[in-house]
Amino acid sequence: MTDFEAPIPFLDLRAQYAGLQPDLLAAVTAVFEQQQFILGPQVEALENELANWLDGPLVITCASGTDALHLALLALEIGSGDEVITTPFSFFATAGAIALAGACPVFVDIDPVTFNLDPAHIESAITSRTRALLPVHIFGLPADMDAIQSIAIRHNLMVIEDAAQAIGAKYQDRPVGTIGNIGCFSFYPTKNLGGAGDGGMLATRDEALARRLRLLRVHGSNQPYHHELLGLNSRLDVLQAAVLGVKLSHLSAWNQARRQIAQAYWDLMLAAGLDQRLQLPSVPSGSIPVWHQFVVRLPQRDAARDFLSARGIATQIYYPVPLHLQPALSHLGYQAGDFPHAERTCREVLALPIYPELTPAQQRQIVAALSDFFP
Ligand SMILES: *Cc1c(COP(=O)(O)O)cnc(C)c1O
């Protein structure tokens, strides 16, 4: 490397904004001119566009991905006394939403190669209280939905997909988040489709569930001051809908750019022999991921991260602590050693920069630095 290589940020949303500024400002200005900020026409328009984009489910937007999970559980009447089986290797909201709904998260270990919930462990975790399976399409890679759906059918369980990181990913040609009973998505600013603040959505093909979700996001109310259900206040802001409407028209191209960057990482790492030194992501056949993150795995993770950081390359650790060992969930009684794959994964994963604006030169710089790390 030269001494003059510029630092590489982990994510650079300013580069995205630079290209979208006129369209975004026009969309936001239109909202101010109309002065209708709650459930205005932009929200309905966005829901219709998202429904088309996802090949036709019913779409209900809401205030965040976390609320989407919470609303899904409320709509399915999952709460006190119920158990929901999920992964210990995810963002906290996956399990937090289950616990906040009053139900009990039950974890099963992950597949150490895909980092997704391993369906082989599900059946032994099912009890008479189990109501739902909640797989996460972690880092934008589809979970093993055929296996999960068939277990759900056999045991009469609901399937809630946490597709917060996976909008546009496909499993056997079907968009993730539209395969189970309800799919939950996030528009957190750093997600593949990110707003200018919090936002989320639900997708379902079930009309009755969609109706319940629409009520539940407005205090369970269908008609002002008349309340059928106990709901939340969880609507997508009109300002966010306007921003997301502009960005949605770019999402397919952005996801495609992420795929090309992932492919380039592979090519460069294989050429450098790095596949002998670390675990590269691998994609099961029939899955098309959207590369929310590009995560490699290596035992010397912390040293590698420091080495890259000294070269100006930012990385992240998703996730340093598995959910079953989070203090907020200590009442569940899990212990270190309960899910060895998830625990070891937390010690070894390293997320490298991946975003549509990342240049080939930056990628070469990252892979060269990783090669230099190994003696
Ligand atoms: C981001 C995320 C969420 C929560 O979404 P918010 O919009 O931040 O509330 C839930 N699950 C996973 C896997 C996520 O990555």
- Mean pLDDT score: 97
Beta content:
5-15%
Small-molecule binders: pyridoxal-5'-phosphate
Query: Taking Cα atoms only, what radius of gyration do you get, to the nearest Å?
Result: 21 Å
Low-confidence stretches: none
Overall 3D form: globular
Sketch the topology as an H/E string, one letter per element.
HHEHEHEEHEEEEEHEEHEEHHEH
Largest sheet: 7 strands, mixed
Task: Name the CATH homologous superfamily of the largest domain.
Answer: Type I PLP-dependent aspartate aminotransferase-like (Major domain)
Q: What's the SSE blueprint?
A:
Elements: H1 13-34, H2 41-53, E1 58-62, H3 65-75, E2 83-86, H4 93-100, E3 104-107, E4 130-134, H5 145-155, E5 158-162, E6 170-171, E7 174-175, E8 182-186, E9 200-204, H6 207-216, E10 221-223, E11 226-227, H7 238-271, E12 287-288, E13 294-297, H8 301-310, H9 340-348, E14 349-352, H10 360-373
Parallel strand pairs: 2-3, 2-4, 4-5, 5-8
Antiparallel strand pairs: 1-9, 6-7, 6-12, 8-9, 10-11, 13-14
Helix pairs in contact: 1-7, 2-7, 3-4, 3-6, 7-10
Pyridoxal-5'-phosphate binds at residues 64-66, 90-91, 93-94, 136, 162, 164-165, 186, 188, 198, 200.
